[in-house]
Records
---
Amino acid sequence: EQIIDKTLKQSDTHLQTLPGVSTITAASILGRIVPSKRFSSVDKLAVSYASIALVDYSSSRTEKQQRSKSDDRQLNKAIHHLDLNQIGVSRNSIPKYPVTYDYYHRKISA
């Protein structure tokens, strides 16, 4: 883990400044994204590789949104674990990261 931490510091990334991002999570995310130079923007990466954003599909009468079928499941899993960590609560029901917790609850109640 010390070697990974040293490598992350050399990579000039700010992932570990996010609340709830451990050394292993940051390495998992970067390890899946960095080799992929085929995306011209963050939005394209989020839609087609990480499957974070939904893709609009429409035919003559129907419109729907669904996950991309060409996603990286390991990257999606790392981001999912990060999300769960950020909206989690401690044993005494106090949110670990109140800003993220409040945002999540506003989104699901809308």
---
Amino acid sequence: PGQPKPNEPAPTAGIKALDPETGDTKWDFKIYQGSSTNGVLATAGNIVFAAIRDGNIAALDARTGRHLWHFQTGGALAASPMSYSVNGRQFVAIAAGTQVYAFALPEAAF
């Protein structure tokens, strides 16, 4: 996420939202390293979580593609984000290298 630094290559991949009826592109979130082993997770709350090969997990607004949040895991990602609930609290997790990271909103937020 973010803009490339000087001397970095331009984005060559992306995550697109398509209108299922027309095939029109609704938004296109550019990334710098594409991968066929990473995936996305769409939620009922209109958030798309994306695993990006460079080690970032990103949260995007499903309606607009706007970048909401990201976390650099420090490891290569070759998996899709997953979601689970514990006692009614929703988590999103991702495997990165030999680690598994899990994220949730602060308990007061929900």
